[in-house]
Amino acid sequence: MTDFVVVGGGVAGLVAARSLASGGASVTLLEASDHLGGTVTHQTVGGLIVDAGAESFATRRGTVAALAAQLGLGNEIVTPEPAGAWLQRPEGAVPLPATSLLGIPAIPLAEDVIAVVGAKAAFRAYLDAVMPAAIGAKSRTLGELVRTRMGADMLEKLVTPVAGGVHSAHPDELDLDRVAPGLRAALQRERSLARAVLRLRETAPSGSAVAGIRGGINRLIGELAVDLERFRVDVRLGQRVDRVTAGSVVTATETIGGTVVVAAPGVPGAAHPLPGAGDGTRVVLATLVLESAELDAAPRGSGVLVAAGVDGIRARALTHSTAKWKWLAERAGGKHVVRLSYDPTKYDPASVAELAETARTDAAALLGVALEPSSVLDFARVGWTRPPAQGEALEGITLIGEATSGTGLASVVAQAQSAATQLLSERAGDPDADD
Predict the structure, then answer these.
(1) Is 0.85 surpassed by the pTM of this model?
(2) CATH of the domain spanning 4-40+61-78+216-276+389-428, picked from 3.40.605.10, 3.50.50.60, 3.40.50.2300, 3.30.70.2570
(3) Which of 131, 222, 316, 354, by CA, is between 20 and 30 Å from 383?
(4) CA-CA distance, 19 to 12, in Å (whole number)?
């Protein structure tokens, strides 16, 4: 018996286990693989240790920054260089609008918005200002809200490539309250979607909307693992779970009793089936280490998002990592790190060599520079699957993680901490709980 059994050793499971154990509970954590962290991990490319998954976190509410500080990484938090990102359209590349939220413009008639979507689409979006606040207020998805308030052109030409680059999904598949918490309430207060975006941007913490950690986001995992050891969490790797029930977890070798927290998708017995949920969203990340003097000027800022209909480019987005993160540029010593993401349902290369060549030619096109094969010093590929949305938990089970919290470290960490706080509160009020 243990007070809590946490199934899954990704970020959500680690944060929940740490919060529960720091609250005085005994915790057992089970992870099916041979390592902790899930998709928040690292890889070595061209002699550089870089993130192989998330490389930044949203600064809203300060959730991740506070966790990093608790783990001793507070002084290691860094903000991106202020170069900004670009959007690759069929007509060419343009800088992304300066004031927006997931591509939703705060000033629809701004010059940088018109440059992306055109005057007609910008004026249609401007009509949001004279609409009653009730229009679109009950939208379930981000796409439904933007289409209703600002029009289909604004959705497809600007919001879709930006939101898709962040969440690897079309806005029509993104739950509004998960990906843009507070936007619905701000719309009601401000009576305009554009003004709601402007107000949320004004009240956000000062500085960038995202931040990173010197050395990579993956450093969170090592520090969380150290804390689990300090709090005497029983961490068991290579432990695949056959099923869970209210009060126990069943593996191939034993049954462990305790309050069950599931931080991994698809665990039998954890949740009601969710019709049409699918198998999740596959993502392939290609990382190039390049030698190119032309890239020293960061010709496309921190990176490029790719709109629909761009011929000849297979990538969904590109990040010029050494232009975005000063710490990485310093370690790279003049080399450049570029990451490109691909949707395997639209492009599934026959080999790693084919992907490497596609990544080189895509990077050249998106960055607007010549990149000969000799400029590629190293290449690496990593792939993962973002889990589909999960149904409601079965009685006696607590669900956490990306499948229920939504995408992004800020959402995942906040939900895991909130769930742990609630569980500890319930335990404290249980007359049968141990002192």
Answers:
(1) yes
(2) 3.50.50.60
(3) 222
(4) 11
**Superfamily covering domain 97-203:** protoporphyrinogen ix oxidase, domain 3 (1.10.3110.10)
Domain boundaries, the chain: 4-40+61-78+216-276+389-428, 97-203, 281-386
10-residue averages of pLDDT along the chain (435 residues): 96 98 97 95 96 90 94 96 90 89 94 94 96 94 97 95 82 88 92 94 66 97 98 97 96 96 95 80 94 96 91 95 97 97 92 97 97 97 87 94 88 96 90 49
What is the number of residues in the chain? 435
Amino acid at site 65: A
| Interval 202-256: pLDDT, tens | 766 544 578 999 999 999 999 999 999 999 999 999 999 999 999 999 999 999 9
Class level of CATH domain 281-386: alpha beta
